Amino acid sequence: MGLCPQCLDYSFTAPSSAYLVALGYARSVETTAGAFSAHVIAVAKLRKIIWTSLAPDLAEVIIRQSIPFVLKTASLALEAHDVWVAMECIIQACIMQWREPLQICSPRPFLPYTELLEEMENLCNILEIRNDFEPIPALSADDPSIHDIPNYQEIASEYEHLYETFERNRTARHFELKRFLHSAEGSLGSGRIVILNASPLRCDALVIRPSSDSLDKELVVQLPIKHQEVEELAGRLRSLWNSYRVDYSDPKDDLDKSGIKFLKTMWTSIVEPIISALQLAKTSDPPRIWWCLTGPFIDLPVHASGTYDAKRPAYMTDFAVSSYLPTIDILPDLIEINKQHELRNLPAKLFFVEPEVSRLDRSAELELRYMREAIPKSQFVTTDDRRLTIDNVIAQLGECTAVHIAATSQQHAGKPACADFVLPATLRLSYEDLRDNPVPKFAFLSTYTVGESSF
Questions:
Q1: Pairing between strand 420-422 and 428-430?
Q2: Full DSSP string of 72-118
Q3: Which residue range forms the structural domain that includes residue 285?
Q4: Helical segments of 253-389, H only
Q5: pTM to 2 decimal places
């Protein structure tokens, strides 16, 4: 079953009202098979409104409240062994979660049909009869307010026609993604894509691997953790960040017991089952895992999980190199950009982006001291020059094979892609400065102070 456009319906139901009706019906269906079908229909109707304006606050409420429902639909799809419907739902949930940042992160907008979308938005705004006291009023052909809109039926018909065109374009985009994932061997090498999906029904890892892998190319691992437990983990992490105060006079005391317990829980309940299913072993040349996180998983640093206090500790970094994707739909573009900006035959050189030593805390000082002792000066580039500009920094990034950033960061929860680093001489290096330029393949980040965070 695919999320195909429904038959054209000119019953004059406003898009948001149509979705709420379908949502209510889906929640009332008790059988698994019936619920799957009803959920898919509701998700298809949801797509009609999430990229149209409505009232901005209202649209945001609908989107935020609908993410768990879409992720539940993905779980139903996995139970029905329909991997591609599950993946489509997960992509939609990720886009809803990262709606604004994705317009920046993707090298080409996820929805490149700007004029079409603008026209759809205008028509949808006409179709939506809004009331300040009833944010999503029901609307039917018998509603007297409908007569206030000239040519309502023609407008509804045109909106459905435009949406059908949009859906065909979107289907073509997803076909491109499907074809890419089925032939990703050359692009991904030995890498894997791991999508973590948390819904009220179950928590799963959907793994996509190159066709040369000895196991099945698509693998679903049901995780031994419940949705509520993932939310509790995310809450514990926020508490740790807010209260974490460690005395770095002894570098061995980097993690307190709470942090170690948190990382161990992530390892045993999330990461270890995936490592086991993939039959990964400790190696000096680990493969890459592209993590795509949904729902409450988004807040978890899965790359740092491990059993730090065990006699024989295990760390995520023993088994794989971790990268993160806001949604797998941008992976083909990212790999294409990586090919265009390939660093060819560059000598090993590390670029340090660091503040004045006097501004560093104890942990950052120890880290930088160790790095300076371990790396020859000839392979060492720093930002000590106070005349440095952002253009100079970007140029250095294009000439080096690795970058280490020790700086104050400014983070913005509403627009993560707008976060930046405050460098020496008060320079600000943002994601937007880097996204269209060649950068080193390896990066290390030491954020010794988090300033002006908007959480």
A1: antiparallel
A2: HHHHHHHHTT-HHHHHHHHHHHHHHHTHHHHHHHSSS-SS--HHHHH
A3: 185-340
A4: 257-266, 272-277, 316-319, 331-340, 362-374
A5: 0.69
Q: With cut-offs at 50, 70 and 90, classify the pLDDT of residue 173.
A: low
Q: Which residues pair with 420 in a beta bridge?
A: 410, 430
Buried/exposed code over 286-321 (b: 16+ C-beta within 10 A; e: otherwise): bbebbbbbbbbbbbbebbbbbbbeeeeebbbeebbb
Q: What is the CATH number of the domain that holds 192?
A: 3.30.420
| Residue 155: per-residue pLDDT | 76
Amino acid 302 reads V
Last residue of a domain, one of 166, 182, 198: 182
Do 364 and 269 reside in the same domain of the chain?
A: no
3-state secondary structure of 288: strand
Looking at the structure, tell me whether residues 333 and 226 fall in a common domain. Answer: yes
Beta carbons of 71 and 85 less than 8 angstroms apart:
no
User: pLDDT tens digits for 362-418?
Assistant: 666 777 777 778 777 777 777 655 667 778 777 877 777 777 776 666 666 556 556
Q: Is 447 helix (H, G, I), strand (E, B) or coil?
A: strand
Domain identity same for 21 and 119? yes
In a domain? residue 139:
yes
Residue 205, φ and ψ in degrees, nearest 5: -115, 120
User: In this structure, is residue 240 part of a structural domain?
Assistant: yes
Query: Among residues 294, 311, 340, which one ends one of the domains?
Result: 340
